[in-house]
Amino acid sequence: MPPGETASVPADRHAPKNRKPDQRPVIDVQDLHVAINGKIILHGVGISAWAQKVSAVIGPSGSGKSTLLRALNRTLELTTGAKILRGEVRFKGEALYGQGVDAQLVRKRICMVHQKPVAFPMSIAENVLFGIRFHRLWNGRSAETIIETYLERAGLWNEVKDRVREPASRLSAGQLQRLCIARALANDPEVLLMDEPCSALDPLSTAKIEELILALKEQLPIVIVTHNLAQARRVSDRSLFICEGRSLEEGPTGRVFTEPRDERVRDFITGRIG
Questions:
Q1: Radius of gyration (Cα) for the chain, nearest Å?
Q2: Structure confidence at residue 24 (pLDDT)
Q3: 224, 58 contact by CB (below 8 A)
Q4: Measuring CA to CA, which residue among 249, 246, 253 is closest to residue 267?
Q5: How far apart are CA 20 and CA 211, in angstroms?
Q6: How many C-beta neighbours within 10 Å does residue 86 have?
Q7: Which of 53, 76, 199, 253 has its CA 20 to 30 A from that of 47?
């Protein structure tokens, strides 16, 4: 970056109130090719994330789903040997990998919730406040207000309000995952990415996460990677099916599951292959 130039991220979401709603997808990926240590993982994949919608990425294990998700918020470049060969990733119409774009701010605005919920070695309250402290997002709010606000948004407040100063490690797996979501939401993201968020959870905890996803989509776009086809049908508005790093089918979830155009997608959805 040239001396004196300020790092930037794509245009901030706080647009003028009289501006017409943007009809473009919030995230738009076209013809994305990715290699890791010389092996091509994604071959021309595309996906869009829209306001107030959940986009599911489904397909067999090892098909590149998580690699695609990491490309959406520039955590891919933290993987040794990972390289985007060609293609385009746009966030609110601007190149996510453009010159001068601050990757750290991108990861704040496009937050990731990982497969395995991991609590930071601190209290429940301090987990929620972690991103607030790092990014200095207080905005005149007290710590107590922030803790309650985001635990409430994650559907966890009523379960932990009397023990927020206790170590987060004492929470159950399902509670931990909701804490991770609260921690992500406290960063005030504009897109939420979720990588198999329910794979380690029991059915009851999974149901709570799914209810949370449906509630949160009204506030920000969500892209979820899931191996659970029934879950994709329950929570997503659009689905992308990829196999061996290639896009086979993309469109409204109802259509993809009931009238798949690709025979391989049909076989996978009907259970003929898995």
A1: 19
A2: 87
A3: no
A4: 249
A5: 30
A6: 9
A7: 199
3-state DSSP assignment of residue 210: helix
Q: What is the DSSP string of 143-197?
A: HHHHHHHHHHHTT-HHHHTT-TTSBGGGS-HHHHHHHHHHHHHTT--SEEEEEST
Amino acid symbol at 195:
D
Domains of the chain from N-terminus onward: 27-270 (3.40.50.300)
pTM of the model: 0.88
- Do the beta carbons of residue 243 and residue 63 sit within 8 Å? yes
Q: Report the alpha-carbon angle 129-203-122, nearest 5.
A: 20
Size of the chain in residues = 274
**CB neighbourhood size of 33 (10 A):** 16
Residue 76: both structure tokens together:
């891919």
Mean pLDDT for 135-157 is 92
Gap between the Cα atoms of 29 and 241, Å rounded? 14
pLDDT band at 22 (very low <50, low <70, confident <90, very high): low
